UniProtKB/TrEMBL annotation:
<dbReference type="InterPro" id="IPR014036">
    <property type="entry name" value="DeoR-like_C"/>
</dbReference>
<feature type="domain" description="HTH deoR-type">
    <location>
        <begin position="3"/>
        <end position="58"/>
    </location>
</feature>
<comment type="function">
    <text>Repressor of the lactose catabolism operon. Galactose-6-phosphate is the inducer.</text>
</comment>
<dbReference type="InterPro" id="IPR050313">
    <property type="entry name" value="Carb_Metab_HTH_regulators"/>
</dbReference>
<keyword id="KW-0805">Transcription regulation</keyword>
<dbReference type="Pfam" id="PF08220">
    <property type="entry name" value="HTH_DeoR"/>
</dbReference>
<dbReference type="GO" id="GO:0003700">
    <property type="term" value="F:DNA-binding transcription factor activity"/>
</dbReference>
<keyword id="KW-0804">Transcription</keyword>
<dbReference type="InterPro" id="IPR036388">
    <property type="entry name" value="WH-like_DNA-bd_sf"/>
</dbReference>
<dbReference type="InterPro" id="IPR037171">
    <property type="entry name" value="NagB/RpiA_transferase-like"/>
</dbReference>
<dbReference type="InterPro" id="IPR018356">
    <property type="entry name" value="Tscrpt_reg_HTH_DeoR_CS"/>
</dbReference>
<dbReference type="Pfam" id="PF00455">
    <property type="entry name" value="DeoRC"/>
</dbReference>
<dbReference type="InterPro" id="IPR036390">
    <property type="entry name" value="WH_DNA-bd_sf"/>
</dbReference>
<protein>
    <recommendedName>
        <fullName>Lactose phosphotransferase system repressor</fullName>
    </recommendedName>
</protein>
<keyword id="KW-0238">DNA-binding</keyword>
<dbReference type="GO" id="GO:0003677">
    <property type="term" value="F:DNA binding"/>
</dbReference>
<keyword id="KW-0678">Repressor</keyword>
Length: 251
């Protein structure tokens, strides 16, 4: 079997099964461990999968904020509306960056009264028009592709906060790997947000579930809620429920 055929087989199996083991591929393709290792490494370098010990997992597609905004889906709006329902009057809320978290800002009812602390420029701009939301913007280095502030000043400011709720922008979620990101710079900010909030809400479309990225933010058990859309099947959600996460399927 040619290399291109092997790698196509690997990618197809990964999409069907959600994970692959190197030992299984050795037996199925009747090639050496070194051959499979090279194939997996090449696919990882191409951004097609995420290497993990013993095999690989799907990798969420990475794109700029503008690209993600242009591909905004109805599912994202539905998820954001359900997430916004978790906000109660008088709460202090941390809102991370990301297009789905930004959509939550759009969906907060006009009569809701709360304080929002955010590192997201679009979230702050949207909530500047809200009549009853007090907005505190975290200052730092602007990460342009995320439209978000990052760095030591952001982390130090977050450490002075005790929030009721944190809406976390998600790249990849996996019940075993946890919450992960393709960019180390954002990891430290997200970790601090998790540490400083009583409850953590992950908002994620189905395509991000069961995927992994190179840098770990936290264990999946750091989450209180997972808000996703109805296209996510029960089998995919079962591991999260078993870990005690409250799953909300928005419709």
């Amino acid at each position: 079997m040619l290399k291109e055929e092997r790698q196509r087989y690997i990618v197809d199996r990964l999409h069907r099964e959600g994970k692959i083991l190197g030992t299984d591929l050795v037996m199925q393709l009747k090639v050496s461990e070194d051959t499979i290792r090279r194939d997996l490494n090449e696919l990882a370098e191409a951004g097609i999968l995420q290497r993990v010990h013993g095999g690989a997992l799907p990798r969420a597609l990475s794109s700029s904020y503008e690209e993600r905004l242009q591909t905004s889906t109805g599912a994202k709006v539905t998820i954001a509306r359900a997430a916004a329902d978790l906000i109660h009057d008088g709460q202090v809320i941390i809102m991370d960056s990301g297009t789905t978290v930004h959509e939550i800002a759009n969906q907060i009812p006009p009569n809701r009264q709360a304080t929002v602390i955010t590192n997201s420029i679009p979230v702050a701009a949207t909530l500047a028009l809200h009549p009853h939301i007090e907005v505190q913007v975290l200052g730092g280095k602007l990460k342009k592709d995320a439209q978000a502030m990052i760095g030591v000043p952001v982390i130090e400011a977050l450490k002075q906060i005790r929030a009721d709720l944190c809406f976390l922008g998600i790249c990849s979620l996996h019940p075993e790997i946890g919450i992960s990101m393709p960019d180390m710079e954002e990891v430290y900010t997200k970790r601090t947000m998790i540490e400083q909030a009583a409850e953590i809400v992950a908002v994620s479309e189905a395509s991000k579930l069961g995927t992994a990225a190179p840098y770990i933010v936290a264990s999946i058990t750091a989450l209180t809620y997972l808000v996703t859309d109805t296209s996510t099947d029960d089998k995919s959600l079962a591991p999260y429920r078993q870990l005690g996460i409250q799953v909300i399927r928005a419709d």
